[in-house]
Design goal:
The chain contains 7 helices and 4 strands; from the N terminus they run ααααβααβββα. It is an alpha+beta fold. It folds into 2 domains: about 55 residues, no CATH class; about 90 residues, 3-Layer(aba) Sandwich (Glutaredoxin), CATH 3.40.30. A 4-stranded mixed β-sheet has the order 2-1-3-4, with helices on one face. The chain is globular, with a radius of gyration of 18 Å.
């Protein structure tokens, strides 16, 4: 919980800043575990139910582990009409994600569908981490994923 402690210090243990604290904690851990929520509640002197209530109220917060790479696929009207369902199928196939899951077994990828990404002019659109991919076709998916993995592999080799 060392990272959680850093987050709490950044916000001076101010319980009125619960939402930004949860946002920062999720940015560090990629999700909010029950243990983490309890730790934050205790450190802020708040009832655990209050912290859990805030974490479950906002759709932005995840109480399930997420992969290293988050893929958000728009399924809003414009994207849906232009084939987002086929792109979702291509993502599941490329990443070998089982129908009852949203993450790869190795937790490298999590695929989420969202109502709108605010980029209707680029439909169909998906965002991988912070990178926007517009006018995506199902046939583009393997190349997009392979290029991301190659880039990450190169970056990790440069660090080593």
């Amino acid at each position: 919980m060392e990272d959680a402690e850093k987050v709490l210090r950044e916000y001076n243990y101010d319980k009125t800043k619960l939402v930004p604290i949860l946002q920062a904690a999720q940015a560090r851990y990629n999700w909010l575990s029950k243990e983490l929520l309890s730790y934050i509640a205790s450190a802020l002197g708040l009832p655990p139910a209050r912290v859990y209530g805030v974490a479950t109220f906002y759709a932005h917060f995840s109480l399930k582990p997420k992969g290293k790479n988050i893929i958000r696929l728009c399924d809003g009207t414009a994207c849906h009409v232009k084939g987002s369902t086929s792109i979702l199928d291509a993502l599941y196939e490329k990443l070998n994600i089982k129908p009852d899951r949203d993450s790869t077994d190795d937790m490298m990828f999590t695929v989420e569908t969202v109502s709108c990404l605010g980029a209707c002019g680029l439909a169909p659109v998906m965002v991988i981490n912070d990178e926007v991919h517009g006018q995506v076709k199902p046939s583009d998916v393997p190349k997009i994923i392979d290029e991301l993995l190659a880039r990450q592999s190169k970056e990790s080799n440069e660090v080593a």
